[in-house]
Structures
1.
Amino acid sequence: MECIKVLYDYLDTFLNFLYPRNIYCILCNVPIDRHEGYSICLDCKGKLRFIEEKACKKCGKPLDELYIIDKCPECVHSLYFYTRAISCIEYDDLSKKVIYDLKYHKKRYISYHIAEMICDRLIECNIYDFDVIIPVPLHKARERERTFNQAGIISKYIGKMTKTYVDNRNLIRVKNTITQNKLTREERRENLEGAFEVLDKAKVKSKNILLIDDVFTTGLTANQCSRVLAENGAVNVYIATLATGRNVY
C-alpha cells in the first residue's frame, strides 16, 4: 500500500507538469484565464452556491437569511464531539460533479483546487489554531478498491498550503462499514459504531486537530471520528469539507 501511495505522489507531480493548473474549468472543461480561482470558469462559479456569512456556527450548514439564531435547530438540540465544522459550498448536482470526478473518475488533480477552497474558507471563518491535519480514513479494503483516499489527497495539499503536519496513519477505520447513502440516520449511527480507532494516543493528546473530508451530510462520520479523537485527548476538533447540505427546519 505504501509503495502505491508513493507511486501516486509521483504520478500527481507528473500530471501537474503535463496538465498545468487553471487551463480548463474543472466543471465544464472550457478554457479559462490562468488567474481564475479554483480552476473554475466565471459561469460555473456563479452557479455554485458558496456558503458565506449565514451558516450554523456548529455544523457549518447554510441558514436562511431570516433565521435569527446562529445555530441550526439540529445543533441546538444535539451534542457533538467536534468543536466546529465548516464547508465551502452547498451540496447539489453541480458540486456533486466535482466530488464524483475526484472519487470515481479518478481526477486526482481536482483535490488541489478543493484544498484551495477549504483553505480560503478556513481563513474566512478565522480557524487557524490547528496543530495537525487528519483525513477521515477509508478502510484498507475500500482504499485498495479505489486506489486512494480522496480526503488524504486533499489533506496533503492543505498541509502544504498551511505548512501544517498531516497525519494520515494514526486515525484508522477498523470496521469496513457499508455505504451510508441509503441508510436512515439511526442505521448510519449503528453502522459507524466502533468504526474508528487511534493508534498512538500521544500524537493526539492536547492537540487541536483539523479533520478533512469531502462531504458533510448528516455529520455522523465526522462526529464519530471526533469522538474517538476527543476520547484520546484532543482539545479541539475542527471539521472542514468541500460541500454540505441544508438541515430541514
2.
Amino acid sequence: MGFFPVSLQLAHRPCVVVGGGAVARRKVEGLLACEAAVTVISPRLDGELERLSRAGALRWLDREYREGDLAGAFLVIAATDDEAVQARVYAEAERDNLLLNVADVPKWCNLILPAVVRRGDLSLAVSTGGASPALAARLRRELEESYGDEYRLLLALLAGLRPLVIGRGGGHQVNCRCFKELVAADLAGWIRQGRWDLVLKHVEECIGSPEALAVVDRVKNEG
C-alpha cells in the first residue's frame, strides 16, 4: 500500500496523543514544533511531558483513553503498546474518518509520520511507509550531517528575496528565471564558509536592488 507524501498545516489544530511515555514524548515534540494544539491522554507522563504540561504547552487528561476522546480531533496518534487501547483508538478514528498514526502498527495507520530533519522552515522528511523505521532514522542522520544550519539561513534569505522579485512585475517566466539563477550558485556553501561577500555579490547580480542587499545583511546578522 502506498502513502501519499504531504505536509500538513497543524498550527492551532487539535491533535490527540494517547500515551505518556518516551514514544509519546517524541510525537508530542514534533506536533508542538508545528504549533499544534496538543492533548495527551494518559494516567502517567514521562518527565519532559510533565514539564510541558506544567508550562501549559499541552493539555493533559490524567486518565486512560475513553471512547469519545477523539471528538473534534484533526489528527490522532496512539503512542501506547497496549493493544486493546490501540484497537479502540483505531475503531473510533476509523469510524470518524480521522487522520491516525498507531506507533509501530502500520496496518492501522492511514498516516505515517516520517523521520524529519528541520532547518528553520526547511523540512526534509524520510518515510519507508512503516516498513523500516530504523532505516528511516539512519537516513535522517545522514541528512542531518549533509544539511546543516546554513540551509536555515539560505531559506530565510530566499524567503526574504522572493517578494522583492515578484514585486518587480516581471511576469512568471522572468521571475522563475531569476529564482533559478539565485539557487544555481553555491549559496549554502558560501554561507557555511562565512563568505557573505560572495552571497552579496551574487544577489546583486541577480536582483540588484538596495532592498535585496538589505535582506542579505539582515539574514547575515540573524545568523
3.
Amino acid sequence: MKKDCLSLKDLSKDEILSLIDKSIEIKKKIENREDYKPLKDVILGMIFEKSSTRTRLSFETGMKRLGGDAVFLSSRDIQLGRGETIEDSARVISSYVDIIMIRTFEHSRLMKFAQYSAVPVVNALTDLLHPCQVLADLVTIKEHFGKLDNLKIAFIGDGNNMANSWIYAASVLGLNLSVATPIDLSPSGIVIKEAVEIAESTNANIELTQIPYDAAVNADVIYTDVWASMGEEEQTARKHALLKHYQINENLTKDAKRDYIFMHCLPAHRGEEVTADIIDGEHSVVIEEAKNRTFAQLSVIMKLLGRD
C-alpha cells in the first residue's frame, strides 16, 4: 500500500526524527560530492498551482543530484479540477511518474488527489499546511543546536499554514512551542484540537498567546512568516493593521536567549514582519534553512519510495 506525506501529524516521532537524520546524511553526501544516486530512474511529477522559487529549485535540483529527474507542471499545463476532474488528473498523472509533489490552495484538493493517485504524493504546500518546510526547519535547528529537546521555539505573526505545521510538529515531537498571533488570525481550530490530543501522549508544551513578547522571551528559536501569503493580497491592509505589533525587531528579541536563531521560510518583506537588521544579522539562519529544503524533501521522497 502506497504512503503519502501530507501532514506531519500522520508521522510518528521516530519517523520524523529518522527523516531529520536522513536529511543531514544526504546533505553531507551531496556536499562531499559523493557518487550517491539512490533515486536513479525515478521521475518526480511537480504540480504547481501556486508558484515558488525555493520549492521548485529544491525539489528539481535535489532529484537531479541523486540521479533522478523531475517534470514541472504549472496551472497553465494542466486542467486540474477545471477541465478535468481531480480524480481523473490524479489517475492519469500518476501513471506517468513515480512520485508526485503538489503545491496548491485548498488542502482538500491535495487530499482528493492523493486518494486517487497510484503513486506517493508529497504536500509541497497548501493553505492549511507546509510540512516540508517545517521538516527543513527542524533539520536546521538540529544542526545548529545539536538537539531539539529543551529548546523554546517561538512562532510570531499570522496563524497561517506555517503556524499550523509547527503546531503539529511540536505535538508529535514533544517540543516546547509558543505561538503568538492576534486573536483574529489564530491558527486552525482543528489543528489546535488535534495537536492538544497528540500532546497528551508526548508531553509537548504548546502555548497560544496574543502577546508577542511572551513568546519571544527566553526563546532559542524565533520564527516568523509574511503577513499576507500568496492569494491573500486583498487582505494585506487588514493583516498589516492586526500584525503591526508582531514585527520581529531588536526590541522584541532583546530578552530572547543570547544565542537564539532567527528563522523565516522566505520570501521575506524587510520592514514588515521583520526588520533588516534581524534577518540580515548574526542570529539569522534563513539561507541555510532554505538550502535545507532540498535535503529534507529528498529524505521524504526516499522514505516514501523505500529507498532509504
4.
Amino acid sequence: MDLKDFIISPQEIEARSMEIIEDLLERGDWSASQKQVVKRVVHTTGDPEMAELILFHPQGVEAGIAALQRGANVITDVEMVWSGVNKKNLAKAGGQVQCFLNDPEVPARAREWGITRAMTALRLHQDELWGNVVSIGNSPTALLEVLRLCQEQKKSPALIVGCPVGFVGAAESKELLAEQSDIPYLSVRGNRGGSNVAAAMVNALIYLSVQREF
C-alpha cells in the first residue's frame, strides 16, 4: 500500500469507519438510538466484541437524550473523560462538562474521610449530580459513591454512564448499577470499560440530542 492510498480527511475517515462497523456488527436487538451508542463505542475502542458487553437500562438512552436536550451538564470522575466529551456539540444544548477532581479541598478531605479522591470529589459536589448526566470512566469507587449518595439523598442523576475499568471493584460496581432499576444507566459488563468508553457513550447521546450525523 502506498501513502497516497490512505484516507486523510477526518470526515471521510469517520464515515468509512462507521460503514465498516455497520458491516461488522451482528444483528442485535438494539433500538436505532442504542445502536448509535454501540457503534460509537466500537469506533472508539476498535473492538467489535465490545458491542456484546454494553448494558442498556430500558430508558437509558432516551433519558440521556432528554436530559441533554434540556441543557443538562455532564459530570465526570476524571479529566480523561472530561477531555473526551464533545464540548462544542454539548454547548449547543446549553450544557457543559464538569470534573471536580482537582478541587483543592479534595486531597485533605480524602485523607480525613479515608476514601479515594474520586469519591471525595463527588461527595463534595453531590448537588451537581442531581438531574445531570454522570459519566464514570475510571474509578469503581466513584460509581459506588454515586449509588450510595442516590440511596442516602433519595435523589438521582438523569443518567449514569458507568464504565469503570480494572480488576478491583470495576465489574462488581457495574453489577450493582445494573441490579437497580430506578436510575437510567448505560454500562459495560466485566472488567473492561474506561474513560474512552464513557466519553464515547456520552458523545453518542450528545450527537443524538443535537441530531448530528454519525
